[in-house]
Design brief:
Pfam families: YjiS-like. This protein is mainly α and about 45 residues long. It has one domain. It has three helices and no strands.
Length: about 45
């Protein structure tokens, strides 16, 4: 994997974490995501 792809993946991961973290617990529950799962979901979004 090259540096540009790694950087883009990291940016996508961070953006996903920030967006999900801004949501309320109710919004996350509506999406079927627990607050403790945010990092796992963000990692999956990069793949």
């Amino acid at each position: 994997m090259n540096i540009a792809r790694s950087f883009n993946n990291w940016r996508k991961y961070r953006q996903t974490v920030v967006e999900l973290d801004r949501m309320s617990n109710r919004e996350l529950t509506d999406l079927g995501i627990a607050r403790s799962e945010i990092q796992r979901v963000a990692r999956a979004a990069v793949r």
